[in-house]
Specification:
The chain is of the alpha/beta class. The protein is built from nine helices and 16 strands. Bound molecules: threonylcarbamoyladenylate and magnesium ion.
């Protein structure tokens, strides 16, 4: 079993020493748990790819403890500074032109590096104690559900990592919004709970969301955005009448969001607001994936922009394992 420790100051100091020695440590952020390594140590970062079974073509986000730390690893323009000032610390990742100090393995050989300052005291204390930026993808096996508790991390990655810092459940619950800020205008590569409206308000101009699949002939600007991602092992179906269908099919599990919140054996009812729903989504899917259902029936969520990131994750979770094979 992996070493799981409550994130006391002693445990954080121990974790920092492991990171400095090139080992992997899983830690909480406000979005999901991350699997961290010293971002400036190529061998350490390679261990992340091995532990996750992650394709080498998928770059990793670098986490910092203050905006000024980005100047040492990337080129920061005016627009990026405004985004950092308005929305950091928080669930927003900026893709910027990288400096040479960032190892190629972190960026999958590309000219850009993704950076983020998490809004979580344990994450920030760990980065400061390690004294280096931390490369950290979500702490799950590639393509599977992201972890929002230390237990999810232990279940998914187990012995592949040296230490899991336990900081309780993550508050936001789904991964950060990824924005390509290396181009003008900036574009959203992955929707998250920082919405297009929040980004536009910070920079004073509109933003586009890059749609998947990528247009033929375009470089893979968002290399990690495969159609199937964040998926439970159980097939997942998005339907309007989840409750009715679940009643008619006894082998199913069901995820809804209206009415009384709560959980039964084979069902979870999430809050009806996007923030509350996002916070509980992955824990609900982890739970329903373990009840040996034939299918997880998920009630369709609203089509408004504040639900966009949630729709994105549910759509990816509903794709079949073969759906990624035709991707470049
Ligand atoms: O909330 C989060 O972002 C969490 C926590 C741990 O910070 N991290 C996370 O990392 O979700 P990961 O690796 O699971 O997802 C990062 C996404 C991937 O889709 C990846 O392809 C994209 O960001 N990405 C990373 N570097 C990039 C770059 N240089 N250009 C474009 N996309 C990049
Ligand atoms: Mg991930």
């Amino acid at each position: 079993m992996p070493d799981v420790r409550t994130a006391t100051p002693d445990a954080i100091a121990h974790a920092a020493a492991l990171l400095q020695a090139g080992h992997l440590v899983a830690f909480p952020t406000e979005t999901v748990y991350g699997l961290g390594a010293n971002a400036l140590n190529a061998d350490a970062v390679e261990r992340i790819f091995k532990a996750k079974g992650r394709p080498a073509s998928n770059p990793i986000i670098v986490h910092v403890d203050r905006p000024e730390a980005v100047d040492a690893i990337a080129i920061v323009d005016d627009v990026s500074r405004r985004l950092m000032a308005a929305l950091w610390p928080g669930p927003l990742t900026l893709v910027l032109t990288k400096l040479n100090v960032v190892p190629n393995i972190v960026t999958a050989g590309g000219p850009t590096v993704a950076v983020r300052m998490p809004r979580h005291n344990i994450a920030l204390a760990l980065i400061s104690a390690a004294g280096v930026p931390l490369a950290a993808p979500s702490a799950n096996r590639s393509e599977s559900l992201s972890p929002t508790t230390a237990e999810h991390v232990a279940d998914g990655l187990g012995d592949a990592i040296e230490l899991i810092l336990d900081g309780g459940p993550c508050e936001v619950g789904i991964e950060s919004t990824v924005v390509d800020a290396s181009t003008d205008p900036v574009r959203i590569l992955r929707p998250g709970m920082v919405t297009a409206a929040m980004i536009s308000a910070a920079i004073g101009v509109g933003v586009q969301t890059y749609r998947n699949p990528l247009p033929v002939g375009r470089p893979a600007a968002a290399p990690g955005q495969l159609p199937r991602h964040y998926a439970p092992a159980t097939p997942l179906l998005i339907v309007k009448d989840a409750v009715e269908r679940a009643l008619a099919s006894p082998g199913s599990a069901v995820l809804t969001y209206r009415g009384e919140t709560g959980t039964g054996e084979n069902s979870v009812v999430l809050p009806g607001d996007p923030a509350g729903y996002a916070a509980g989504l992955y824990a609900a899917l982890h739970k329903l994936d373990r009840v040996n259902a034939d299918v997880i029936l998920v009630e369709q969520v609203p089509s408004s922009d504040d639900w966009r990131a949630i729709r994105d994750r549910l759509n990816r979770a509903s794709r079949q394992p073969g759906d990624n094979l035709n991707q470049p």
